[in-house]
Amino acid sequence: MDLQVFIDLQDKFDQESELFESVKAATKELDRTCRLASAKLSKAHSLPKDRLKEVTDAIKPQFATIQQNIGELAKLITPVTFYKYKEMWTHKLQNACALAVFAIYLEEARLATPADVGEHLGCKVNMTNEPITEFVLTLDEYLLGVISLFGELARLAVNSVIVNDVQRPQEISTFASELYSGFQLLNLKNDVLRRRFDSIKYDIKRIEEVQYDLRVRGLIS
């Protein structure tokens, strides 16, 4: 019997193990950067509207590092191995996407497009059903990142009142309602994306409660 077959197989196993550890290390770095970026971005909840640019300017170096982290991860992945290892980084990319979506909202009061997110993260969003030819952010990851914005908006509505900005909850409510209407146009399947979408109504309710309290107290017309 020629044992070289098994020796060659072991070499393949060793290579795959090395790749697994390299991907694990790269995703860990991405997660670390995202957590730091999230901490800096959360300062927006304690500032009035006219000082939000301080936060969006301060967060730019973190997005540059996120781009580097994703670039290092992309070097390790081929089209063949993309879906094999995708579960190792998908939650980290969702978090990075959520950060980009929130930062763009704070800066421009609008919804970040897939192209916007791709520019912030340094990778494209796959908008087609074509085979994967490079490292990309999937459409589901983009949509999950957008859904996370509702939670930030609900928190921002409450904290706006704390910093004596009683008009901003109305702006937030209008934007959130339009965004929710957009999601209702999508025929989402019964999976994690659908379950996350179903939770949006609780964030909408929190925003509406802030408006209700302000009106009852006569702080807004």
From TrEMBL:
Protein name as it appears in the record: Translin-1
Record's keyword annotation contains Cytoplasm: yes
Family: Belongs to the translin family.
Lineage top rank: taxon: Eukaryota
GO biological process: RNA metabolic process
Chief site of localization: cytoplasm
GO cellular component, one term: nucleus
Keywords assigned by UniProt, alphabetized: Cytoplasm, DNA-binding, Nucleus, RNA-binding
CDD domains hit by this protein: Translin
Subcellular location: Cytoplasm; Nucleus
Gene from which the chain derives: tsn1
Record-linked InterPro entries: Translin, Translin_C, Translin_fam, Translin_N, Translin_sf
Entry's Gene Ontology molecular function annotations: RNA binding; sequence-specific DNA binding; single-stranded DNA binding
